[in-house]
Amino acid sequence: MISFIIRRLGIMALTMLCLTLVVFFLVNLEPNLRKLSISQTNMRATDAQIESWLVRNGYRDNFFVRYGQWLGVMQKQPIIDPETGEATPRFRFCDEPAEPHFSGVIQGDFGCSTRFKVPVAERLVPALQATGWLMFYVMLVMVPGALLVGIFAGMREGSRTDRSLSVASIASTATPEYVSGVIFTVIFASWLGILNGSAATATREGITFTNFTLPVMTMAIYGMGYIARMTRASMAEVMTAQYIRTARLKGLTFSSVVIKHALRNALIAPFTVIMLQFPWLLTGVVIVEAMFRYQGFGFTLVEAASNNDIDLLLACALVSVVVVLVTQLLSDVGYAFLNPRIRVS
Amino acid sequence: METLSTFEIVVQIIWRFWPVWAAMIIVGTLSYMYRDRLGLYGQLYDGGVGIAGLAFIGFWLFSALFAPIIAPFDPIGVVPILKNAVPGTIDPESGHAFLLGGDKLARDVFSRMVFGSQIVLIIAPAATAFALMVGITLGLPAGYYGGRVDNVLSFIANLVLAFPVILLFYLLVTPGITETPIPYTLAGLFFIFPVIFFVTLFYTRYQARPQFMWPAIAVTVVLGTWVWISLVSNDFIVQALRNNGLGFVGAFFDLPIFKIISIEPGQLNIFVAVVFASSPGVFRITRGLVMDIKTRDYVAAAQTRGESPWYIMLWEVLPNARGPLIVDACLRIGYTTILLGTLGYFGLGMPPESPDWGTAIKDGSQLLRLYVWPALVPAVALMSFVLGLNLLADALREESLKD
Fold first, then answer.
1. What would the pLDDT profile of A43-71 be if each residue is shown by its tens digit?
2. Partner residues linked to A112 by β-bridges
3. Element spanning A119, H or E
4. Residue of A nearest to B168 (CA)
């Protein structure tokens, strides 16, 4: 088990290295650098001005040197102003020591956001907290709801309940966030007027039922159908097993067979699916936060990407890749714990 | 301004769709009559779920085909007085009504919905087909050989899968990227897979009969190269080749024969991003299926006969993996539609006036509290199309479980 986890961690580190290198390459493409330079100097900058800005701030250094500096395995060099001979920071809103130093992701320095004009960590931490709350409520609604639907549908395969619940699950997987968001806003905010069509107030005044229900509902509905269908398949399979028949023949009631014998085995497979929903939720978070104007991780990612804020975008990419890889690891390890038939070698 | 009543709107919408109803009735009746002879497609007519799925898909398929007949207005045409008009407002000049209202730029929501289906129904199935080709061509050897081939390919697939889709899109579909060679390189890479696939297919099958094999391979290569160059070449590539001392290749790419079919750089970019995002999924499914099927007796029999590995993969394993792959392809077209909608919703890749459903939802949702229809109509359209595909996939899965 231990060696399995160590090997997985090694592959994870390699994956992270490869992915950040790819992202680093893509955000440093020529058109993106020009866009950044124009937004940081002025709209009517000449080619020479753009070029000199890029050279001055070190964007023209060797690609691998810069990646190493971002990672924290190469020293960051201070920028010496040729006129005064003094070291000046790259961006006036972030401090920088005047001597060469190691300061990259490994040292915990994520760099400087050019869009929000603050260090990346200062922007990213509150955003992640905000998204954490959103995710928490989504999971709170989605997981029990989906499991209940799946269990009721799979309990008696082929019954009328099963068929109607299955069609409902199929419909929910056909409703991406930007569709359900529009439909729910129209029904609950425009027509009935009981909920807020925007979660912007949640950032300032705290989460309430009226401003947070719509985003949570919108996100939960898309993932729910998928988990419910997996639970149903697993439940239906368990219900045909020999030991369930034995329990029924022993004279136990249907409800006690379902609760005591079937559920425990039927919930192993959905566990994996639920864990693997986290990466899926990341995309949902971006759409929902943009739609309901909630200032969390997704909102930050969109802002970073559309303004080519290199350091912030790299940090966002790192966070999402870590989320994906950690949930994959947890789902594998958890599955091995839950299912005694699986032995990891 | 005159407006129609709700009843008149419903009647007129139903009337507007008459070519669709006619086509659906003809195709549906014929298919239902001969369903015993139509194989898997015919079996779908046995259950309610299958018929419902086919109905939704048929509706949008024929809407896309007959869009110019159905839509009363130009999808990007503007009638200034009908800005944000309520559903059923009559345009005094042409006498036609804005059946589902006007959007914030005074365009007909109904016509945009109908024309939007064309974009979705071209890109989503085509991108899925390419993703299937890439995924299958790489998944077969990974599952069959295992070992190092499998390790390397699986690592790459997991790498792509670990990318959150939305981040991938923001990085790959930014406007600036069409000025770099990246989308064209990726497109060149993906578009070569169908050629490899079909050449191998014919080569392994007709090796004993060269009189069949060589013409088949020649046709595939010529046709494949023609389509490949047509899709990949554009002014940017020709210029880049000239600058790098490959002027003769550039001149060859510039020949008029390669201008018959072409694709906009923006759309090529979307296409590449969608194929890139969904082929690792196909790869994983194919790999799993092959690992299961290769333990069967008929594969062992073929191995004993001394068949080549690629013959076994393409002609013994692949036909037996078709059931789950068809179901997956069905779901994947739906998923691709959702991805296209996401791209449109974030304004990536598509031109801003494009009538596709994602862009329309984005435009409409800005004024959602005041005017409901510009966003609601494309949202319902997208949902119904994906629902149809999901229902069809479910019916197909049920059918394949019966055997």
1. 677 778 888 878 777 787 788 888 888 88
2. A119
3. strand A118-119
4. A23
